[in-house]
Amino acid sequence: MTTEMTLIAALLAGLLGSTHCLAMCGGIAGGLGMGLPEERRTAPRLLGYLLLYNLGRITSYSIAGAVAGGIGLWLGSMVEVAAWSHVLRWATGALMVAIGLQLAFRWRGLRHLEGLGGRFWRRLAPLGRRLMPVRDPGTALALGALWGWLPCGLVYSVLVVAAVSGGPGRGAALMAAFGLGTLPAMVATGALAGRLRRYAGDRRLRRAAGLLVIVFGAWTLFGPDMMHVFGAGMPHPAQM
After folding, report:
1. 6-55 per-position pLDDT tens digit
2. Do residues 139 and 33 lie in contact, with contact meaning Cβ atoms separated by under 8 Å?
């Protein structure tokens, strides 16, 4: 159940944190296909470019999640299994609470994570400039894959959760869920994008979703211990 809650938390973080994604990547996504001649700049073609761009972006998120999860699993192999499982649970729960606070109250305690990828991004940024303007589907996919590594505090927050998720597969799934959460706002255009932006920025909705993520995190932290304590005090069915 903890895995499912973590995936839901990642999806909510992407869905309601998508205003941040629009601010950082929306201009790039909006400019896709602008290098095409006017007669080839049709709505279906531009939608296809948007989908390819986001496929590349989410694929990069998933690769980063797999790498982070693999590193976490490797580090865990050096520690006693029982002790490491407790570390994973507590780290996951604490990070989920932190992400919930960021969603509900715009807490900025995780913003320093963006600085960690700044140096790496400075090496990739020139490649992104070479790919623009986008003139074909392959370039749209490549640009999205590259922009998936753009330094972003929210992305890095979920990536840290992926690192303590228990392995490459879980890490990739977690980051894919986050990426899918950002997809509606990144693909939507015009009036629909404005409406999604209003929903994602609605204080009550963000607060409710953030509090739900906090509850998930608190349950991850304390739920198993509470079940153990209360379960130990209940008589076995054979004794009743």
Report:
1. 888 888 888 777 666 665 666 666 667 666 667 677 878 888 888 999 99
2. no
Structure tokens at 223: 């739920």
For the stretch 45-53, contacts whose Cβ atoms lie closer than 8 Å and that sit 24 or more positions apart, written own/partner, are 47/187, 48/137, 49/134, 49/137, 49/140, 50/140, 50/186, 50/187, 50/189, 51/187, 52/137, 52/140, 52/141, 52/144, 53/28, 53/29, 53/134, 53/140, 53/141, 53/143, 53/144, 53/147
pLDDT above 50 (res 190): no
Which residue is listed with tokens 């198993």? Answer: 224
pLDDT digits 0-9 by tens, 118-163: 677 777 778 878 888 788 889 889 989 998 888 777 788 888 889 8
Residue 209: both structure tokens together:
């979703």
> Which pTM value belongs to this model?
0.75
Please give the backbone phi and psi of residue 124, each rounded to the nearest 5 degrees, phi first.
-90, -30
Instruction: Give Rg (Cα) of the chain.
Output: 20
Closest CA to 213 of 163, 131, 157: 157
